[in-house]
Specification:
Elements: H1 5-94, H2 98-120, H3 124-144, E1 147-149, E2 162-168, E3 178-183, E4 186-188, E5 191-194, E6 196-201, H4 210-213
Parallel strand pairs: 2-6
Antiparallel strand pairs: 1-4, 3-6, 4-5
Length: about 210
């Protein structure tokens, strides 16, 4: 009886060791399973993110293709618009005088009739009056378009409005006064489009002023 008691004590000592080993193995197993589970979850999350990125990339490529098509269409439309503008601009320049030419055509017809009549009718006075009427009609059209003659005779020479053809001695007027208009000048809406060609009084040779003599 006394010999069996020590064996029971040793047996009791070994049981906790085996239990600890089982616990450690179970813990290791749990750790491995947990690690596997976490790895699997990470892989699943990565796959989900990858699929999302692929989807976004596909959508971006589709959107990019759509923008590219729109850009090409806009470029083509702009090129067509530019060509139309060039054609319209050329037509505008070509036909810009159409309106005034239409208004002048009756004047041309009047001149034609006057010349035809002048060949058979030798009445100078009636011919002159007919030409005068044509002139007045022609002048009225130009005046309505903003044309005005430049008054020159008796005015002081102004380089902005006049071109001097020559100077002559005129002791009865002040120097630089316009004494004769060779060609009339004109303005269009205030802008000089043709300078008047004039003859002006020269400086007096003795340097005296005609107004001082008076």
């Amino acid at each position: 009886m006394s010999d069996a008691q020590p064996d029971e004590k040793n047996s009791n000592k070994e049981e906790p060791t085996e239990m600890n080993e089982k616990k450690e193995k179970n813990q290791q197993t749990n750790d491995v399973e947990k690690e596997i589970s976490e790895t699997t979850a990470a892989e699943n999350e990565f796959e989900n993110d990858f699929e999302k990125l692929q989807k976004q990339l596909t959508e971006s490529e589709t959107l990019l293709g759509s923008y590219k098509d729109q850009l090409l269409r806009l470029a083509a439309e702009f090129e067509n618009f530019r060509k139309r503008v060039e054609v319209d601009k050329a037509d505008f320049v070509k036909f810009s005088n159409e309106k005034i030419i239409k208004e002048l055509l009756p004047i041309l017809d009047d001149f034609g009739r006057a010349l035809t009549t002048g060949k058979t009718n030798l009445d100078f006075e009636s011919f002159y009056k007919g030409v005068e009427l044509i002139y007045q009609k022609f002048y009225k059209i130009l005046e309505d378009k903003g044309l005005k003659p430049i008054d020159s005779v008796g005015k002081e020479f102004d380089v902005m409005y006049h071109d001097v053809l020559m100077q002559i001695q005129r002791p009865d007027v002040k120097p630089h006064t316009i004494v004769e208009e060779v060609e009339r000048g004109y303005t269009l809406h205030g802008k000089v489009i043709k300078h008047a060609k004039v003859i002006v009084a020269a400086e007096s040779q003795n340097g005296s002023d005609p107004e001082q003599k008076n």
